[in-house]
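TEACHING EXERCISE
Course module: macromolecular assemblies
Task: Read the component lines below, then compare them to the predicted structure of the full complex.
Student: A.B.
Group: 4
Components provided:
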Amino acid sequence: MTYLKRLPKFEYVSPRSLDEVCGLIAGTSDDEVMLLAGGTDAILQMRRRERVPRRVIGLKGVAELEFVRERADGSLAIGAMTALHTLLSAPAVSQRYDLLRETTAQIGGPELRNVATIGGNIAGALPCADLPPALMTLGARIRLSSQRGDRWLPLDEFFPEFGRTVAEDDELVAEISLPRPASNSGGTYLKFHDRHSMDMTVVGVSAFVVLDDDGRTFRDLKLAYANGAPTVFRARRAETVLRGHALTDEGLEAVAETACAESSPRTSWRANGEYRLELIRALTKRAIRLAWGKASSRKGTKP
Amino acid sequence: MNEQIRREFQVLGKPTPKKDAPLKAAGRAEFADDINMPGMLHGKLLRSPHPHARIVSIDTSRAAALPGVRAVITGKDFPGVRYGNLPRTRDYLPLAIDTVRYIGEEVAAVAAIDEDTAEEALDLLQVEYELLPAVFEPEEAMKPGAPQLHAPAPGNISAHTESQFGDVAAAFAEADYVREDVFETHAVKQGMLEPHACVGVWDSFGKATLWSCKMSPYTVWRQLAMGLDIKPSDIRVVQTYVGGGFSGGKQEAMPMDFCALMLSKKTGRPVKFVHTMEEVLTIGHMRHPMKIWLRTGTTKDGRILAQHCKLLANGGAYSSIGGFSIFLAGAMLNLPYRVPNMKFESDRVYTNNGFCGALRGHTVVQMCFARDSQLERIAEDLGIDPLEIRRRNALHDGDVTPNGFRINTFAFDECITRVAEMSGWYSKRGKLPKYRGIGFGCGAHLSGARLMGHSASAAEIRMLEDGTVHLTTGSTDVGQGVETVMSMIAAEVLGVEVDDVNYLKVDSAATPLDPGTFGSRVTLFTGNAVKQAAEEVCRQLAEIAGERMGVDQQDLVFRKREIINRKDERQRVSLKEIVRWAMFQQGRVITGRGTYGASEEKIDFQTGQGNLSPAYNPTACAVEVEVDPETGFVDVVGLWGADDSGTPLNPMAVRGQVIGAAVMSIGHALYENLIRVDGKVMNPSFRDYKMPQATDLPKLADFQHANVITWEPEGPFGAKEAGQGAGTGVIAALANAIYDATGVRLTRLPMTPESILFGLKGVQQQKGNRGP
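Instructor-supplied answer key:
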């Protein structure tokens, strides 16, 4: 039986600063110590005994990990402990990062968005997570912190395989940075689930389009997928198919075809791989069209 | 006459909010889990991790030694008497003794000072199992050499029924048109929001009391006596508020009930059990998955001459009421149609899955899905309008079906007409944009079944000195509004306000005996008993008032808390005054009793012959869908239903019931699916067991319901059932609508986006093959 049991016994610590967190995780292993962000997945994992940490480090009290800030270089900095609800209500997000707003708004219901965090959605390394595809297509970089110092890396490179990240045991995701989107750009995140709302993603597609100055061709297209493979991933070959070209039905078919070839969705009791591929095909085309439409309507507006 | 009576209603027929609504909305209704008693312990159940195994040994010593644990029990702590519903299907034990038959079956129980300690103790229980081969599909289970689940059931046949009416072979030979189809349905759960919960106290006098959220407390009472092997009179069952029932286990005694009492006996303390939602979704009680083979023969113009149905039901590990489940499927095969010749053969098969029983609409839901899907195909093949074929075959008032159902009122034709109007059927069918479709589906239900054992209801009314009314029956309000409608019936007769009637919850020590709340029986059966009890009170009060007023008691009417001389309305006296005079001066106890038996006619359960219910109600509905051709996703954009629920006594509650029934069927058809892999439930949470949410349903403006009002002579004030029938036609309507939108005919539930998408590809391929 996989009943949700009571929580296992563990020691709970609640540090107040990032330094303190780094000190607490330095020299420990993942099995021993667990970082707790919003806990919407982690608590279930503990109750299913998939994780039985000796010590849980609650990040809620680390104020310096919770911020949404525009930097001087025009980029957006988001603290890992920023709750989804906070992201939704940040003016910078709704003004300039519509793709992020739209994706966040589609996750769960208000109760869940009040506790779930952006950092947790990334660090959980689940292939069905909704934020990583959107963030990848927005060109996100993440800051990993440890006692050894900080390092930055593109989010694209964060998930080497199912359920894992490249973060070392002594590192945590501290910050997400998004470059300011080009003025003639637009993106959308489409996800399919069995019900109309508040449901687990069967397949999610994020498409981000940058138009050429004339607005007639693709300067850039980025595509990333939830549940398209054992990890969230970018379909890099598919992204190149339309670069420099106008939007055509044949072009879209070719992108979708390539994206399917790059995907390796699994068959589980939730959905068959074959069906997920059909969804990838359909949603890729739809997402690109929608993103193109948004980019076109934004063309000429000030960034 | 009927119209006139209705116009004269004082209380009935007016939309009346449920009496307990403010209490529930404010969170003040006390559910079983809200009960706390001094010294109360918390119980937890150890469940089998194996689908089929022999219990070699159970070592409870480590668990018992855990600080905070007060008692540990296993199956051997009970007398080993099997309990259940029908004498030949008693196969439940309070806890497994030597064999477990499905993943989740109860093996041991612990009582401790808190829930966490009790759960920790479960981890310390050491059970040695010897694994046995398991079988999950009925076809496999019936094969020679298959693992046998129960010794008295060779071939794993849990129940078998066969019936034949008319000359089926001759009718098929005569038919112009014959078709056969196979339909498959899946396992769905009740999904009530309140999990099962109980508190048990075994007192020092040897009396056992159980407080629990039971739909049918007297069934629980009897089953507890059976499984504990004590006298029913030593047991008391007290009903708490019920947070939804749907026959998800609250109609029977469950292992938690036995364990709460036995652990209380061992510890001398009250013991509470509350299931987690994961337990609720894992254990037994769910809708039967079925394979339905249906052969129908008609004339050229679509008149049904004969139907032959073979049904195979996956019963799971235990009987529950499965024997009746498959009997009912056969009995209701024909309704709402005239089928002169019918044959029905069915097997319910034991498998190593959670067991099946009833769920809103019982097995009528699956049969209507099969039959009304097939009827649509027949109409298409014969070039008949789908509504017309239904009209041609409709049952009418006064019909007697070949299996002996006597149809009093049955406004099926009018239901069809109303749905056609409300849905705009004729302006939509065949005229909607591509991938949008509309489908029709019909069904029927009965207002309580005449069962072999206990089927009568009773009510008792006692007048209080303040002129208010104390009303007891054995029927429970499970959220459907029994408290309100029974109060309304009493208030109507006694000429008082609904709030003057105090409807008490069932307490086996105080309330009249009753089979319980199931099968849509309460409004009709218990309602008649309440009406009769109130009339008896009126008779007594009229006698006293007549004497006091010097008026012939025949001339007295009860209205607005007064007793009035209808010949001279100036002559009136307050009800309260008469009650007080009778009590204070005459020492009388003003009580009235009423009964409703409906048992003068016996059903022959061997042949299936007999009038199963006092009343039958037809239903029709149309559903409009839009299908996304690239993903197969379905939007239910509109649902229009009409029912003949007789005369709706509380139209507000009727509306809630019919919409609720329709919504449950939408969930069954499109979203809900208890996924089991080798007997293990993969999705035991409301995240993964997908009940429809508000966003999955049509907007309220496109979700309409009409009552076609009839006056059912058997019903109290003309009423029939409203809680189940309305859901029976919905699944076929959805299947027919999806077919209309896409050309994809789905015969297997649930109708998933995947099956629709791949179905569409098949349809497109066929078109391609046919060439331009």
